[in-house]
Amino acid sequence: MQPIEFDEVVQKITQANPRYHRDAYYFVREGLDQSQRTAMKNGKESPRHVTAHELLSGLRVYGLAQYGPMTMTVLAEWGVTQCEDFGEIVFLMIESQLFSKTENDQREDFKGGYTFHAAFREPFLPSHPATVEKPDPSESAKV
After folding, report:
1. Domain containing 49: what range?
2. Could you tell me if residue 140 is inside a domain?
3. Nearest to 25, CA basis, from 123, 99, 82, 130
4. Measuring CA to CA, how many Å separate 104 from each of 44, 50, 51?
5. Closest Cα partner for 10 from 49, 2, 106, 23?
6. Kind and range of the H or E element at 25?
7. What is the distance between the alpha carbons of residues 97 and 57, in angstroms, rounded to a whole number?
8. Residue 143 within a domain
């Protein structure tokens, strides 16, 4: 049996289902790697199955590290605008045997994970609203 070639399979997926750009699949694969590295740091010795919640967290960390404040824009360009899109990509990859799942994993696990605004925009917003001091009217009278 020949090993599955990731590039070839992603090409087949995107030809059959062009909703998501091919780069979104690579992004999810890298996010999975990020999630597994985090799990290993937390006391696990080898890569293991990660939950949808752990994967969403890894995708957030990976996205912010790669694209910073442009993450949401880049993902939208690829057709990814909500966590459910990540779930759809994951399950397309599972159906193509690029990823595996447990009997408990389902697409709905990705529903409502976080809002993209909270995950990808808020980290770059000022923590306190900018305040503008009003000019002192007595200062303008002194001129």
Report:
1. 6-124
2. no
3. 99
4. 21, 12, 10
5. 23
6. helix 22-41
7. 23
8. no
Four-point Cα dihedral 12, 63, 87, 125, nearest 10: -140
Q: Which residues of the chain have pLDDT under 50?
A: 1-2
pLDDT for the residue 1 = 42
Report residue 109 as tokens.
């696990």
Please state the domain count of the chain: 1
Report yes or no on 135 lying in a domain: no
pLDDT at position 47:
65
In this predicted structure, what is the pLDDT of residue 41?
73
Q: Quote the pLDDT of residue 61.
A: 94
Do the Cβ atoms of 142 and 97 come closer than 8 Å? no
Which candidate, 68, 45, 43, places its Cα nearest to that of 121? Answer: 68
**pTM as predicted:** 0.82
Q: Tell me, yes or no, whether 75 lies in a domain.
A: yes
Percent helix, strand, coil in the chain (nearest 5)? 60, 0, 40
Assess contact for 61 and 55: CB atoms under 8 A: no
Site of tokens 């923590």? 127
